[in-house]
Write a structure and sequence with these properties.
574 residues; mainly alpha; 30 helices; transcription regulation; nucleic acid binding; MTERF_sf; Transcription termination factor MTERF2, chloroplastic
Length: 574
């Protein structure tokens, strides 16, 4: 130590790289780091006392710097607790302040200033306290603030510059801090021209300008990509048949789909989705509709759900239908969302082998709330629609769409309408058990068909009770044309044989009935027993005379909705 130039005396703990009175700055002390490097050898390897003294001096200087920083924070109206917690995470920045304060000794204006004055001046000039206040205002925790300040590498102005740029692309205030923290790489070191180029490329690919702030706020990793990587990730989706509109809306719905996952992980998920029998274009349309699938893990989400569907007897084609129609089911926790609903179906009497068909036919069922949607509908069917406990499982298995109907706006209105026709509650329950979709039709569709059945076809209400599927057929395309054919040929069938067959089968049935009538009218009572057996069930048992010139209106009390209708006469051509 005797060979080294003496330093200017300072207060205890003061350390300078060189003495300010040295005529040659290159003859100063060696770097501080070399004082602790025992391998390189600087003449102090054996002087443990001097090393210990220097370490203690540095610790004293660091503590002094910490107190100066806390004092600046208190002047900025930060609490002592917050200042202490923040400083505990700012060790790198405190060391940076120490080095800069020491180097300021070379400046003429600080030639005779103490370390405290220089450190305080540097902290004030860096504007670190206002930046801390702004970051705290944007809901960043003190570890995040400390991490951001340390990552700036002393260029605190870069934080403010990037924040102003984020505001210009409409990133919301509370997301600006998150973007600064979560952006990978040294985003603070990138020029604004590079960032503008990234935004311009996204706009060129279909992302609207108004969406940019939302997307960057949710996926700041985009700002850390080079243009080559950004283009490769974008082409990954365009190669699956997406256009600019699909890509823009997909990125808006789920910004992480572009920058959060690695290319390898994205390829693995696309390959797994193709195993359901989807083509490359099908996967593209699926991701455009539900990009959140890209955020679901194969081992965590996809495989457990597929195994459960397989246990329920759902085929690969059924799984593909569920995936295409309700892809959100592959993004939820099936143990809490799906298993409870499947167990409820078992409890109400749906057979095990029918549960899979129910889910494939109506996947929306699994997205409904069990206690707010599914259970109330089942209770309504049991208490208000006349469905028995024995038939409720059959009703849900045949018509799971009932669980998606509103009780107040659909089911209750339909039940009241059928009861107003003179149908008893027990009969309505049997009708629903035979044809559950009966309660899903709009009354505006039901009313004209019922009116035609009672007024034009002159059928009793019992026919409707026996065959509730009558309401499922088109009035103009099926009911009216076939009724006219029956009138023209002077034959009559039950509703089941009139409607529930193809046109060819119906024409054959009409032809057979006409032949029987002609033989009867000619006095030939020897009928073909086989033909009689085949058609006997389809012929109405009550008398119906087609020879009369008109069909009188049935003498029954109809609903008030039909009392204002005129009597209808059907002219029968000879």
């Amino acid at each position: 130590m005797s060979l080294i130039n003496k330093r200017t005396p300072q207060f205890p703990g003061s350390i300078y790289i060189q003495s300010p009175i040295d005529t040659d700055v290159y003859t100063s002390l060696p770097p501080i780091s070399s004082l602790f490097d025992t391998k390189k050898g600087s003449g102090f390897d054996d002087d443990d006392d001097d090393d210990e003294m220097l370490i203690k001096a540095l610790e004293i200087r660091r503590k002094v710097t910490v107190e100066i920083f806390k004092e600046a924070m208190r002047k900025g109206r930060f609490s002592i607790t917050y200042s202490t917690n923040l400083v505990s995470e700012l060790s790198d920045f405190i060391d940076y302040v120490m080095i800069q304060a020491a180097s300021m000794k070379k400046m003429p204006e600080f030639l005779d200033s103490s370390f405290n004055v220089r450190a305080r001046a540097f902290i004030d000039d860096s504007c670190v306290v206002p930046i801390v206040r702004w970051l705290k205002h944007n809901a960043l925790s003190y570890p995040q603030i400390a991490n951001l300040i340390c990552n700036s590498k002393g260029d605190l102005e870069s934080i403010r510059r990037l924040a102003e740029w984020l505001k210009s692309i409409h990133v919301k205030g509370r997301f600006i801090g998150l973007v600064l923290i979560r952006a990978k790489g040294n985003v603070l070191g990138r020029s604004l021209e590079e960032l503008d180029k990234i935004i311009g490329y996204l706009e060129y690919k279909g992302v609207k300008r108004d969406w940019i702030g939302y997307i960057v706020g949710r996926c700041p990793e985009i700002l850390s990509f080079s243009m080559e990587e950004l283009e490769s990730r974008t082409n990954f989706y365009f190669d699956m048949g997406m256009d600019e509109k699909d890509f823009g809306t997909m990125l808006f719905d789920y910004p992480k789909v572009l920058g959060y996952f690695s290319i390898e992980e994205m390829n693995q998920k696309v390959a797994y989705l193709k195993e359901f029998g989807l083509s490359n274009e099908d996967v593209g349309r699926l991701l455009a509709f539900k990009p959140h699938l890209m955020g679901c893990g194969i081992e965590e989400k996809f495989k457990p759900l597929v195994k459960y569907f397989y246990y329920l007897g759902i085929s690969k084609g059924g799984m593909r239908k569920i995936l295409v129609t309700r892809p959100v089911l592959f993004c939820v926790d099936f143990e809490t969302t799906i298993v409870s609903k499947v167990q409820f179906l078992r409890d109400i009497g749906v057979q095990q082998d029918a549960i899979g068909n129910v889910l494939v036919r109506f996947p929306r069922l699994l997205t409904f709330s069990l206690h707010k949607k599914i259970r109330p509908v089942v209770i309504f069917l049991l208490t208000k629609a006349g469905v028995s406990q024995r038939n409720i499982g059959k009703v849900i298995a045949l018509g799971p769409e009932l669980l998606g109907c509103s009780i107040a706006n659909k089911l209750d209105h339909n039940v009241k309408y059928f009861l107003s026709l003179g149908i008893t509650l027990r009969q309505l329950g049997e009708m629903v058990a035979d044809f559950p979709m009966l309660l899903t039709y709009n009354i505006d569709i039901l009313r004209p068909k019922y009116r035609y059945l009672r007024r034009m076809m002159v059928r009793p209400l019992q026919d409707l009770i026996e065959f509730p599927r009558f309401f499922s057929y088109s009035l103009d395309e099926r009911i009216v044309p076939r009724h006219k054919i029956m009138v023209e040929n002077r034959v009559n069938f039950k509703l089941r044989y009139m409607l529930a067959n193809s046109d060819d089968e119906f024409n054959l049935r009409v032809q057979a009935a006409v032949e029987r009538r002609l033989r009867f009218e000619s006095g030939d009572l020897t009928l073909d027993k086989q033909a009689h057996t085949e058609t006997d069930g389809s012929i109405e048992k009550y008398p119906f005379d087609f020879q009369t010139a008109e069909i009188l209106e049935e003498k029954t009390d109809l609903n008030s909705d039909y009392k204002d209708l005129p009597s209808v006469h059907i002219q029968n051509s000879a």
